[in-house]
Amino acid sequence: MNTDNSNELVVDDEVVSPSPLDPLIASLTLRTKTNNVTEGYDLSLSAFFGAERILLTGEDFSVEVDVSIAKAKIELDFIRCRPSALETNNEVFSDEWKIEQQLIGAHNKKRGVNMMLKAVVSNGLKGSGQAESDYESSKSNSAELKASRTIKNWQKVNKNTVVVGRGEGQLDGNEIYDFEGWKVIPDNSSEASGVRATLSVRENWINLIQIHSDSFMGSIGKKANDLLKTKDERSQQLFGFLLRHLAAKGLSKPNNPTEAILDVEYFVVRPDIENATSINSAPSTGSVFLDSTAIDEYLNSSPGAEVETLVSMGITHQDIREYTDKPKRKSGLFMGMSSPVAALDAYKIICKRKSMPRSELEKSVKGRTAQDLTNLALIKTKNNMLYLSSDHDRDPEDVFRYAAARAPTVMTTRAILVNDPSASNMDVAEMLITKFGKKYSTDASKIRVGNTLMRWARWLEPHLIDPNSVEGAKLKASALDKKYTLGPPSMATPENVAIVKAGLAAGDSIRNIAKKIGSSTQTITRWKKDGTLD
After folding, report:
1. What is each CA distance from 279 to 14, 18, 31, 321, in whole angstroms?
2. How far is CA 237 from CA 120, 193, 211, 228, in A?
3. Cβ distance 463 to 419 under 8 Å?
4. Looking at per-residue confidence, does 235 or 94 come out higher?
5. How far apart are CA 267 and CA 76, in angstroms?
6. What Cα–Cα distance (Å) separates residue 508 from each residue in 182, 377, 521, 526?
7. Are strands 72-79 and 154-158 parallel, antiparallel or unpaired?
């Protein structure tokens, strides 16, 4: 060792690392085996992972949950120093280590299947115990062993970043142990320098393994406990998803809300102390503070509106669909593929006649009115004959409007429009996919279905759409039109037709007129040919 203290590299014992969430869930270690800075030093990294119980707490709410990590990112920041281009790399593993990792990989893969966000509670819902027994019964499957990790479960993706795990199951044990991956050169051997390692996870890398229902505290916690006692497993899953979302937000930094920080490790060097010493770490917090008002809002949402509540909090449809069980597809959902006015006319005819052949109705009222009335449970079909579902003396229009307003798809569309009057047809379609498990092969199909349901919502409640917007005028015309259409609402509203006529009479160009009403020049040319402007 060089006896000149100015060339000595030491770990600063005055620096304290921030509190980790829990070292048994995720923890980092940085160290070196030399103090000499003349030619730099080899820096090694270790990372440990596991599962542990933590406390989620907020105002008037707390609950204990078991958490593990499926994937993590470790980023190194070099402060007044730099990594050498000639880096060390001790990625040498024994056969015994490889076999052990194969077994752990297969075990974790089994344990992780559909476990995330299951909101498993301690009062007996299906959960991790079943998953582990499934693994025990099939651990001899060689194909699964081959599919598991074979060399290592981490990858150094650039000089500053290491990614651990593949996002399946859970990370377990010393995933990285004493990896000498950097040769660090201080910029100036006469001043302090160092390395900061940050272990972070994205929301979908967090496994919420179990919610301990017996640990709920506070009035909001009591309502959450009542939810977990019900048999609505999907609502429980969505609640578990919300807890994970809020926990991730509680662990994130304001300047990077998409990543939750689990541990930060500092390696600070000073040239004026001869002996290296370890860095102090603050005690782990073991808890995350979260926004309990969001939990209260979810618990107070009306039955069936849980997904809408999550989306209003900024959670995407894709995340909900990817990390919760798909809803069971419901047959016979009302999709409003006919005109509301035409469907009402058809219903009045059937009410007057009590029954009639389907073919006869379809001759007098165009469109899919019979299918829509069937899905609204207003009529039933047998041997190509249409019958009223029940006899009544009430006003057919009142019965019809009541049935349409209570259709789950219309109620969902209404909720979207109440929250956001400018919501698009794609917003409606995405919600139908998330809530009801609907499938659409193309974006055009989504647009078509979104348009039809927005048309029905606008017909039932005209004020749901901004009347000053182009879309509002189009939907108003479409809602009152008996014409059978599957595409977007017609642009040929009375207002738009009047604007076009006035513009043409004044000698304005078709291009300018089209801009005024938000259409294409081809649309106006077609109107001139088909008589719309007559």
Report:
1. 7, 11, 10, 43
2. 9, 47, 11, 10
3. no
4. 235
5. 10
6. 70, 51, 13, 17
7. unpaired
Packing angle, helices 521-530 and 510-517, rounded to 10: 100
DSSP 463: G
Closest CA to 148 of 172, 124, 174, 176: 172
**Distance between CA atoms of residues 239 and 322, nearest Å:** 15
Q: Which residues contact 299 (CB under 8 A, 6 or more apart)?
A: 220, 223, 224, 227, 239
| HSE, side-chain direction, 13 A CA sphere, residue 465 | 26
d(CA 355, CA 300): 44
The tens digit of pLDDT for each residue in 92-108 reads 443 443 444 455 555 44
User: In this predicted model, what pLDDT tens digit does every residue of 366-414 receive, in sequence order?
Assistant: 778 999 999 999 999 888 899 998 877 788 999 999 999 999 999 999 8
Cβ neighbour number for residue 54 with a 10 Å cutoff: 20
Q: Could you tell me the pTM of the whole model? A: 0.67
| pLDDT tens per residue, range 271-327 | 777 666 667 777 888 999 999 999 999 999 887 888 988 988 888 888 888 878 778
Q: Which H helix or E strand runs over 385?
A: strand 385-388
Nearest partner of 291 among 262, 257, 263, judged by Cα: 257
Alpha carbon distance 309, 300 (integer Å):
10
Pair of tokens at residue 456? 């029905």
In 30-51, which positions are buried (b, 16+ CB within 10 angstroms) versus exposed (e)?
bbbeebebeebbbbbbbbbbbb
Residue 124 Ramachandran class (φ > 0 left, ψ -120 to 50 alpha, else beta)? left
Distance CA 434, CA 324 (A): 10
37: which residues sit within 8 A by CB, 6+ positions away?
Answer: 7, 8, 9, 186, 189, 269, 271
User: What is d(CA 453, CA 308) in angstroms, rounded to the nearest whole number?
Assistant: 16
